[in-house]
Design brief:
Order of helices and strands: HEEEEEEEEEEEEEEEEEEEEEEEEEE
Strand content: over 45%
Largest sheet: 7 strands, mixed
CATH topology of the largest domain: Immunoglobulin-like
Mean pLDDT: 92
Radius of gyration: 36 Å
Oligomer: single chain
Low-confidence stretches: 8-12, 18-28
Number of strands: 26
Shape: rod-shaped
Length: 311
């Protein structure tokens, strides 16, 4: 009898292999009890944002009792999300907060949902990996120009452009005086972001503003901001706010503006000039006057003190 043992063993193995093959082929031909899988690709459990949890969703062909857990790359379970729960046919939605069964944050890496269906006697690992990412992006401000601009709508120096680099794909953010003003669409490692110097579609007042950049990655992690750099909104500015002149003599004042032309008024006289050095004649009567220079609807003023000529 012993001499037939190897043959019996081989036959048994062949039968087992055939049965396994038939079962595998049957599974291939049997529609999956799970379909319509939707799983978030990446999230950050610490971002305190809309992507702070991962959404897991799929449809059941029929009623069953579900157990759903998250497994790591070695196939070990790190968190049970659903335990033997009766579930009707249709859409199933579950979320995971990136923590294990002891409420400890799991290490960065890829995880996959595993679904056990008691009635079907099947366990299915969803092919969709979920990446846990808690590392914030770091952005570098490469250049910022111009440093003086005027959002007055004349098409000249209307905006500030910041070029940046990020150490991973992320969306750039521009802050003005600590407040987020612009969000760059898309996820890039290099790019540019623009600020048009407006708030609620209205030009902001002239003055000095502090600009910095930040970045938020696809997982939702918000990186540290760059050091602040100053930019100036200037529509028109006079080189001095007090001018002294002798009646009837000429005086000069510097006019700073990127407008093509500026309008001036001194007493009853008016005129148009180019920005730069503005040369005017003082009134013939002594007294205090106001010089007003306007560019695209924005004005600056200087007091003009006119004295009589010395005898």
């Amino acid at each position: 009898m012993a001499k037939y043992a190897p043959a019996v063993l081989v036959a048994a193995l062949l039968v087992a292999t055939a049965v396994a093959f038939v079962y595998a082929e049957k599974l291939k031909l049997t529609p999956s009890p799970i379909l319509g899988t939707r799983v978030d690709k990446v999230f950050s459990p610490i971002c305190e944002c809309d992507t702070g949890t991962a959404a897991i969703s799929f449809r059941l062909r029929g009623r069953d009792r579900l157990t759903v857990d998250m497994i790591d790359q070695d196939g070990d379970s790190v968190r049970t999300l659903v335990q033997d729960r009766p579930t009707p046919r249709g859409r199933v939605s579950i979320s995971w907060d990136g923590r294990d069964d002891s409420a400890t944050l799991v290490p960065e890496g890829s995880y996959r949902p595993r679904v056990h269906l008691a009635a079907e006697r099947r366990t299915i690992v969803l092919p969709n990996p979920i990446r846990v990412d808690v590392t914030p992006p770091r952005v570098e401000l490469v250049s910022l120009s111009p440093r003086v601009f005027s959002p007055d709508g004349d098409g000249r120096a209307e905006k500030v452009v910041a070029h940046y680099r990020v150490d991973e794909k992320a969306g750039a953010l521009l802050y003005v005086d600590g407040e987020q003003r612009v969000r760059r669409r898309g996820q890039q490692k290099n790019g540019r972001i623009e600020w048009f110097g407006r708030l609620d579609a209205e030009p902001m007042p002239p003055g000095v503003y502090r600009v910095s950049l930040g970045a938020r990655d696809t997982a939702g992690n918000l990186g540290p901001r760059t050091p602040e750099k100053a930019v100036v909104i200037r529509y028109v500015a006079l080189g001095r706010d007090r001018i002294e002149a002798v009646a009837g003599t000429r005086f000069a004042v510097l006019v700073l503006s990127d407008a093509a032309r500026v309008e001036w008024r001194l007493g009853k006289r008016t005129g148009v000039a180019r920005p730069g050095t503005l040369r005017l004649r003082a009134p013939l009567q002594h007294g205090r006057y106001t010089l007003t220079v306007t560019a695209n609807g924005f004005s600056d003023r200087a007091a003009v003190f006119v004295r009589e000529p010395k005898p």
